[in-house]
Write a structure and sequence with these properties.
The structure holds two protein chains of two kinds. Chain A is of the alpha/beta class. Chain A contains eleven helices and twelve strands. Chain A has a ten-stranded mixed beta sheet with strand order 4-3-5-7-1-8-12-11-9-10, sandwiched between helices. The longest helix of chain A has 17 residues. Chain A starts with a strand and ends with a strand. Chain B is mainly α. Chain B has a single domain, classed as Orthogonal Bundle (Non-ribosomal Peptide Synthetase Peptidyl Carrier Protein, Chain A). In chain B, α1 packs across α4. The longest helix of chain B is centred in the middle third of the chain and has 15 residues. Classes of the chains: A alpha/beta, B mainly alpha. The interface between A and B is medium-sized, with 13 and 13 residues.
Chain lengths: 354, 85
């Protein structure tokens, strides 16, 4: 099987990440229960005629995918694979609300077209003229990792040479309202720098789009090698260490080989225990980082972690704002990303400098 | 009629998300499709729904749309002659 490399990255997030030369030089802090992305000037990336029908998720992804392709020096790819928890939920909500408001009449095509989950992958393919494999994975908090697994398998088996892989979710009013009602979003605003001190239930909900070009051909500018990705629907807390150990063993990697672990703490008092168990347990002597105080939490927030991990390997620098402890690694070679949402949909992603 | 034309321009800008276009930039006799405003077939469907919803006009033959949606002038004339609300 062929190895898989990450050639390039592209990100639109709640931080100024859409400029690839930047790496968290300027931090945007917030004090809220939701956090939106910093919008790039979309007109610089998307022709106005095309942009007018695009939902936010599509616009964000048009920019992040274009940035990833530009950095990789590619105009097209063999496959496009996107992970999303809810697709273009904004247009889905508006379409359903039109159905109710207009008594199932006068339904217009634009919102219907954009109300499906696979709109983002489709729109990127239309823009590029890519007629290859086009797939969308909708698996809650492991949507992005599911896309990575699909791309990895394609590349390992030489079914493609370059694959554009991404994760996207957008923040919209009704979705926020319903999540607030069921207690999944915090009731009181929380300052980003206080995320880890939170003693309340729920998350600060965010949004974002992260795209990467993966390939089975290494280039001098490749960010990293994707060693392994594993997802689990459920893991009880008492079996978490065992699952991680087995995952690492399958890659002939030990805990001591991990130079940095990136964790998905979202400040939910009921579920951050999973992370605490690792930071005070098997990874107590490992450098640790977190990121959801910068990105907010959403189904594909781990795309931000993947972006962060690759930037850290490329720059060999861990920004202070993401550090969870003071342990310094002499060199940064191997990074493990662990994420879960409300105790379900756990993922482990292992990358190595190449 | 001029009020109706203004109303149509506002509705077209809003419903078709023509963010960069203002009412003043649409001349009454500008072609809406092709080289004028640059609308396309999906916009044509949006306009057909708008005629039905806002003016109570159902287009029995969608081919009629080609003439009706030629410009703001032709749309306003058709609506004035056929509207039920």
């Amino acid at each position: 099987m062929k190895p898989v490399y990450i050639h390039s990255v592209g990100s639109v997030s709640a931080q100024k990440t859409f400029e690839n030369e930047e790496f968290l030089n300027e931090i945007r802090e917030y004090n809220d229960t939701t956090v939106k992305v910093i919008d790039p000037n979309y007109k610089d990336f998307i022709p106005p005629a095309a942009a007018r029908r695009m939902a936010r998720g599509i616009k964000m992804s048009a920019v992040s995918s274009k940035n990833a392709l530009t950095e990789a020096g590619l105009e097209n790819v063999d496959a496009i694979i996107v992970g999303t928890g809810l697709g273009c939920i904004g247009d889905s909500e508006r379409f359903v609300s039109d159905i109710i408001k207009n008594d199932e009449q006068f339904l217009t095509p634009t919102r219907f077209i954009q109300s499906s989950h696979n709109t983002v992958a489709g729109q990127i393919a239309l823009g590029l003229g890519c007629k290859g494999h086009n797939f969308t994975f909708v698996h809650s908090a492991i949507s992005f990792e599911s896309s990575l697994i699909d791309a990895k398998m394609m590349l390992e088996n030489d079914e493609a040479i370059t694959v554009l892989v991404g994760g996207v979710d957008e923040l919209v009013d009704h979705h926020v309202e319903t999540h607030r009602l069921i207690g999944h979003i915090k009731k009181e605003p929380l300052a980003s720098q206080d995320l880890l001190k939170s003693k309340t239930e729920g998350m600060v909900m965010g949004e974002g789009s992260h795209f990467f070009v993966l390939s089975n051909e290494k280039t001098p500018s490749s960010y990293s090698e994707l060693l392994a990705v594993r997802t689990f629907n459920t893991i009880s807390k008492d079996r978490l260490n065992q699952k991680i150990n087995r995952f690492l063993e399958s890659q002939q990697v030990s805990i001591e080989d991990i130079d940095l672990i990136i964790l998905g703490n979202n400040g939910d008092i009921n579920f951050d225990d999973y992370y605490k168990q690792l930071t005070t347990g098997i990874f107590a002597n490992t450098a640790q980082a977190y990121y959801k105080h910068l990105s907010g939490d959403f189904d594909t927030a781990s795309g931000f972690a993947f972006w962060l991990a690759n930037k850290i390997l490329k720059t060999q620098h861990i920004p202070d704002v993401v550090k969870l402890n003071a342990i310094e690694s002499s060199s940064l070679k191997t990074i493990l990303i662990y994420n879960q949402y409300r105790g379900e949909n756990h993922s482990l992603t292992l990358i190595r400098k190449c | 009629m001029s009020e109706l034309k203004l109303e149509l321009k506002e509705k077209i800008i809003e419903q078709l998300n023509l963010e960069d276009v203002s009412v003043d930039e649409i001349a009454d006799n500008d072609p809406l499709f092709g080289e004028g405003l640059g609308l396309d077939s999906i916009d044509a469907l949006e306009l057909i729904v708008m005629l039905d919803k806002d003016y109570g006009i159902k287009l029995a033959d969608p081919k009629e749309g080609r003439k009706i949606f030629e410009s703001i002038d032709t749309m306003a004339a058709y609506i004035a002659a056929n509207r039920s609300n």
